[in-house]
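Usage

Read records sequentially. Each one opens with the input sequence:
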Amino acid sequence: MNLTPKQMRIFDYVRKFRVAHGYSPTMQEIADALEVSKVTVFEHVEALVEKGALRRNPKKARSLSEVEDAVRPDEGTGLVLPLLGRIAAGMPIEKCAQDEKLRLEEIFGGRTTARRGDMFALQVEGESMRDEGILSGDYVIVERRQTARNGERVVALLADGETTLKTYFLQKNGTIRLQPANPEFEPIIVTECTIQGVVIGVMRRY
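and closes with the structure output:
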C-alpha cells in the first residue's frame, strides 16, 4: 500500500486511538492531535479510503475504521496484533493500554499464517499460571469474547477495575471462581466479572 508520510500519520493515529479508546476519532480530534487543519485531514482521509486503508460512513460520526486486511508498507504480510498492556498472573494489577504492536512474523520467522480475527496480545506478569505453562514474561494471544466456558483461561475485568489472567469456573451457587495454576496463590471468588477475552495461545521468547 503506497501511503504518503502525512497519510501514514493519520492512518497510525486512527489505529492507536481506536486501540486506546475503543472508538474512532473525529476529524477535528485528528486535526488537533496532528496540528493540521480539518480540511487537510478530510483530504487525506478521503485518499486513505480510496486506497483501501480506511473506511468511513460520511453520515455517521466516529465511523473511521481500519480496513481489516489493510497492511502498512513497513508491516509486510505477517500477522500484527495490538499489544494492549500487561496482565497480572499473580495479584491483579491496574488495566493499561499501550500503543505497541506484537509482530508474530518477527517472533516465528514468517511461519505464521495470517489469522486476523478479533484478537489482541498481553504480556504476562507473575507466576500464578505457572503450572499451565504460562510464565511471567510470556505473551498470551487473546480472542475477544464476552463469555467463557468452565476451564477456559480468561482475561477477567474485576469490579475494582483491575484485570487478571485465570482459569474460569462458574460455580453452582452462581459465584465465579478465577482459579490460578500455582498452589502459592489463592483463587479469586467474585459474584461477577467482565470477560474481556479467552486465551487461545501462548508465546515465549528465549
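Summary fields computed downstream for this record:
- The chain has two domains: 5-66, 80-203.
- Residues 50 and 203 are 37 Å apart (CA to CA).
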